[in-house]
Request: fold
Amino acid sequence: MTQTIAEAGPVRVAVSTVIFSLRRSAGEDISRVVIPLVRRTRDPFEGRWALPGGWLDATEELENAASRTLRETTGLAPSYLEQLYAFGAVDRSPSRVVSIVYWALLRSDDVDAQVAASAASGDTPENVEWFDAASLPPLAFDHNEIVAYALWRLRNKVGYSRIAHGLLPDAFTLADLREVYEAILGRRLDPANFRRQVDSSDTLIPTDRFRTGSHRPARLYRYNRDVELAERGPLRTPAPSAARPRTRTHD
Amino acid sequence: MTQTIAEAGPVRVAVSTVIFSLRRSAGEDISRVVIPLVRRTRDPFEGRWALPGGWLDATEELENAASRTLRETTGLAPSYLEQLYAFGAVDRSPSRVVSIVYWALLRSDDVDAQVAASAASGDTPENVEWFDAASLPPLAFDHNEIVAYALWRLRNKVGYSRIAHGLLPDAFTLADLREVYEAILGRRLDPANFRRQVDSSDTLIPTDRFRTGSHRPARLYRYNRDVELAERGPLRTPAPSAARPRTRTHD
Reply:
């Protein structure tokens, strides 16, 4: 076995996850795309912020490893998880590490609920903070490059798939939907044009419920569940499974 | 070092490449999408056909490993190479192997030229044959699933990018272009509709040359080089470099 490993060279496999959510602070008129980062407590890059992640277990599916390491480091469980890219540049780490990166979406109310649940169980993850994805400090490894690529993918994907649904509750107004697009694309969209584009697609189903408040009542919509959340192709990835908690260094 | 490897578990990293070309035999009225496969000469899956590939070297960039193993096993060098997906199912191989899969395009005249060059240098690769991508025998590992996913990606990508250019010479007629689309999509396209769609995009530039023959002269076009071949995002991947020839088992 040792000989087999040596033959293949000392290449190790890690997983990392870029998990996007939206956040709007009081006084802000547009939501920001935010991601959680974990402060490294050991070399290399001790003290720097890094994506949640860890080593791939030899007996563990890739997607399960992404879910497990995300849960272990941040306490979060996303509503949507998709492989982004394998980052394997020779110089990305002092030792040779190929990192299979996943990206995920998490609604902001789910973030709040999951953080509250962690706190209630006395299990608040340490060294985790949320950052604006568009203005990050220098991160460990090639993680700035990874986030930039994930943001690019998110912005592209929101244009031709139902990906925004991963950031919305089951029922939402057209203004809610437009705000998700505005946050991801980083610019204002014309409400009338946006409504026309949505109406001409068949991805939304109007409900008979309305949201009332300080404005005139706004109809609530839901996504047509007959349409896939995103085109994932013929690949059937296994559902994330529960795994025993472990503590691992991660890249 | 041994301790470090053991900690990460015996996970090995391989690269494989799905390299598409088009072929039309005499009497066929539509081209077929074809891929080269390599017959395995050792276990596991001895005797089965498999994608060209091999182990990742610890000092080698991923894309270089894809180019190198493709060249070593088939003698081919593609005009376009892009990462497809990391396949890492626990049960895809008797030992744990994560395979970073690339996909590539190669014009059929380049295939002929490269095969002729290999033959002229007395270096014809053994155990290589071209197969219809749409009707493959049972392949080694999960390679049927990989080819199916690569075909799905090719069909999707041809719709929203200039990917077809990777299968065309520098100057081509609209009929040439339509035939590439027909081969990839596996169905006939209406010539008049196709011309309208192409005219409404700005990806083609008409030349002042015409192809003459048994039909009326057809104008030759070229792609607008200001437009990227395909949207690869902000990632800058290193150009494939020359690497020393090696013989490796591959998965």
Observations:
- The radius of gyration of chain B is 20 Å.
- Chain B touches chain A through 41 residues (CB under 8 Å).
- The helical segments of chain B are 2-8, 62-74, 108-120, 143-160, 174-185, 191-200.
- Chain B is about 30% helix and 25% strand.
